[in-house]
Design a protein that fits this description.
- The complex is a heterodimer of chains A (315) and B (176).
- Chain A has 315 residues and is mostly helical.
- Chain A is 66% helix and 0% strand.
- Chain B has a five-stranded antiparallel β-sheet with strand order 2-1-3-4-5.
- Chain B has 176 residues and is α+β, with helices and mostly antiparallel strands.
- Chain B has five helices and five strands; from the N terminus they run ααββααβαββ.
- The chains are: A mainly alpha (315), B alpha+beta (176).
- The interface between A and B is large, with 79 and 65 residues.
Chain lengths: 315, 176
């Protein structure tokens, strides 16, 4: 068999494509955008909760620690564990809550700057977990995505661009296969999430007949405007329901084509902006937009591919 | 591809497989074998354990909570749970009120008692508190066109009184 014929074999082509998919060097810029915008969103979110820190997470909060911490699945210790740990230093439960929350803010601030990024990500991830455990009943969608994002920050090469670590020479910088793999994980995570969410919605009748849109716009905890006029134009919520299902189920298909990617991601960003404006879920929408922009809208094509990092050879 | 990168790729594939399994409603951590226990630890730590079922397959009704406080002179006033300083804080407190739904027959009285105790702690003059849980029912669009309007219906209510000499509330009477 000739060399040319061997190269045409489907198995070899597939393997080469898979290698390029996960290992072709990518610019670290998308991951830097992810790190910076994530930190900004989580800092804003934390500051919004600071005024009710004790109500939500504190020892005298609406849900006692013993109830919250026995209800969660997480194996990370909650604030009661930190209280026991810090008691010898004279910190009571309220002071420990403040200390852990301050450590969370500090971790996010350092993550934003990219200074000792890995350590900062670890502090932010650990303290976010502890706050989630002790505030278990106040946790919602944004916290699950924040949890996943901070876990990724522990592992991804997020400080290879736009960071103080890069300026100090503590990271190598430049395009890398690790950056490509990290971007693929973000992209595939989004594809799975939207597809599952879309299929779940499509399983019931209310997203098809528009009732889900109507009901969500009239819940007292979500409603931002009086939208009762929608009852006179039922085709509009029905159209919005169809659009939501189409965007979500179509996401893992249309984001991979160059021709449809930008339109599809922008459509999804508009979906989240709609959720923010009409349902008041600003933080959830913001973190989803961060994921979408970093994963699909920031170009990962390296300006110059170092010779040592050229597309991988296969044996 | 280097061996190191191949290992990371395999780990990433495993992580994404878990996300897909949890996202599709299959729980690989439900197995009591060591692997299942390990996944039950890994899922929450990594954020992979999520079903992504936001507002699906339908948007459920809102469960509102009202605290009706009474002092020793018989003066009564009411408060809600969501009196946070920001909208974001209120979103979290609404999550707490939603969690007070236990089952169709019974509310989560442990959570109601905890919130009642917190309210009594914030109001030293109050001697008792009634926690009222109500569903906010929104009619369908066709129902709305025929004149139906959103309304509240009682789900459950419990009375809690301050235990003598203690700061925490104690359940005095509960009824649905």
């Amino acid at each position: 068999m000739s060399v040319a014929a061997h190269a045409e074999e489907p198995g070899v082509l597939l393997r080469r494509a898979l290698c390029a998919f996960v290992a072709a060097p990518a610019s670290p810029r998308p991951l830097a955008v992810f790190r910076i915008s994530l930190s900004v969103v989580l800092l804003a979110l934390a500051l919004c909760c600071a005024g009710n820190l004790y109500d939500i997470f504190g020892p005298g909060g609406f849900v006692q620690w013993s109830i919250a911490e026995s209800s969660t699945w997480s194996s990370v210790p909650g604030l009661s564990w930190f209280t026991t740990l810090l008691a010898p230093f004279g910190l009571d439960a309220a002071a420990t809550t403040r200390a852990v929350f301050f450590a969370y803010i500090l971790g996010l601030a350092l993550l934003l700057l990219g200074w000792r990024t890995r350590l900062a990500a670890f502090v932010a991830w650990l303290t976010q977990q502890a706050l989630q455990v002790s505030g278990y009943f106040s946790v919602y969608g944004v916290d699950h995505w924040a949890n996943a994002a901070l876990f990724y920050c522990l592992l991804f090469p997020i400080s290879d661009a736009f960071s103080l670590d890069r300026l100090a020479g503590r990271t190598r910088g430049g395009p890398s296969p690790a950056a490509r793999l990290a971007i693929r994980v973000l992209q595939l995570h989004l594809c799975i999430a939207y597809f599952c969410s879309g299929v779940d919605k499509a399983a019931g009748p209310t997203w098809w007949n528009g009732e889900a849109i109507w009901q969500s716009l009239h819940r007292p905890d979500l409603a931002q405007f009086n939208c009762s006029w929608l009852a006179q134009v039922p085709w509009l919520p029905m159209l919005l329901g169809w659009a939501t299902i189409t965007l979500e189920i179509g996401y893992p298909i249309y984001v991979w084509s160059r021709r449809t990617r930008r339109a599809w991601v922008l459509g999804t960003v508009c979906l989240h902006l709609g959720i923010a404006v009409f349902l008041g879920l600003w933080s959830f929408s913001a973190i989803m937009i961060v994921f979408n922009v970093a994963a699909f809208l920031v170009d990962p094509t390296p300006a110059v591919v170092p010779q040592s990092l050229s597309p991988p050879e296969i044996s | 591809m280097s061996t190191r990168h191949a290992v990371w790729t395999a780990l990433a594939a495993g992580h994404l497989t878990l996300i897909a399994l949890w996202g599709s409603g299959f729980d690989p951590a439900s197995d009591s074998a060591p692997a299942g226990k390990l996944l039950a630890v890994y899922g929450p730590l990594s954020g992979a354990m999520s079903n992504f079922g936001y507002f699906s397959p339908e948007v459920g009704p809102y469960l509102g909570v009202t605290f009706i406080l009474t002092d020793s002179a018989g003066f009564t006033w009411s408060e809600t749970l969501a009196q946070g300083r920001t909208h974001e804080a209120n979103v979290r407190l609404w999550e707490v009120s939603a969690a007070m739904y236990g089952s169709e027959a019974e509310p989560n009285t442990e959570l109601m008692r905890s919130c009642a105790a917190a309210k009594l702690a914030r109001h030293p003059t109050a001697s008792r508190v009634r926690v009222r849980l109500e569903w906010h029912q929104v009619p369908t669009m066709s129902g709305y066109r025929t004149g139906q309007r959103p309304n509240w219906s009682l789900y459950s209510e419990c009375d809690f009184a301050r235990a003598s000499g203690e700061a925490a509330g104690e359940e005095d009477e509960g009824r649905r």
